[in-house]
Structures are given as C-alpha cells and as structure tokens.
Amino acid sequence: MDPTRDTINNRTSPTNNRTGNMASPRSRTRAYDTEGSTLQYWIDQLQKLCTGPTDIEAIRQVTGTLRHTTQLFFDSRQRHLDGMPEEERDAAITEFNELIDKLKTVQRQAYDLLAAAGNPSSAEITQPPATKNNDPKTNSTRPIPKLPTF
C-alpha cells in the first residue's frame, strides 16, 4: 500500500470511542459540566419567574429554552457516563437525578402558571350583550326595505 495515499479514514486514534466521537474524556467532562451549568442557570431563571410577579411571555420563552437545554444536557450526560469509571457513576447519577427533580418541580410550576393564564376565569370575560349594540350600521333589527313589484 502506498503511504502517500493513507487517509484520515484509514487512521486510528486512541481517542476514538465506541460512539465514533473523537472527544477525549476531558472534553466530554467539560461539555457535560457546561451543559449542566447551563441547565442549572435556566432552571433558576424559570424558578425566579414562577415565584415573582407573573410574566407569562417570559415564562414561555424560558420554558422553550429550558426544553432545548435539557436535551443538550441529556446528550452530554450520556457521553459523560459512557466514559466514566464504574465507581464514579453512582455519584454522577445521583447528582443528575437531583437536578432532574428540581427541573420537574420548576416546570410543573411554570406549566400551572401558563395553564392558569391561558384559561381566564369567567369573571374576566366581559362581553357586552348583543342587545346593547346601538350602532345602526350593525344593528340586526334594522328594517329590510321592500322590493318593488312589477
């Protein structure tokens, strides 16, 4: 085989893992820590919104961002656990479960606030009755003119 024709695809690297990722264990840990910190930040933001004055639009935005961030965290968590020694996994899983419990609690609060805002109470619904419409252009009791007969 000609050594000049050797390609990247034919080379092997000690950093290759079974998922095809070229990331080293250190970079997987760094990504996991970054995603975890980001997730924690957005959980805290949503918790502040849920416990303070209600800003429904902000809650919707943070909930969407949190949904995306959670998925990124799940992906990095799995890569992190795959490269972790067995003896360290239990502690990492416990830490992860605590974070997810907090996430579920805050999301439940946010969904309750969003549901309450989406369904106004009957006292908030004030439509004038149709009989009080005094505009002659839209009054449904206007007489219909007779058509001429031939």
TrEMBL record:
Residues 1-29, 118-150 are annotated as: Disordered. Residues 1-26, 119-142 have a biased composition (Polar residues). This is Uncharacterized protein. It comes from Trichinella spiralis (Trichina worm).
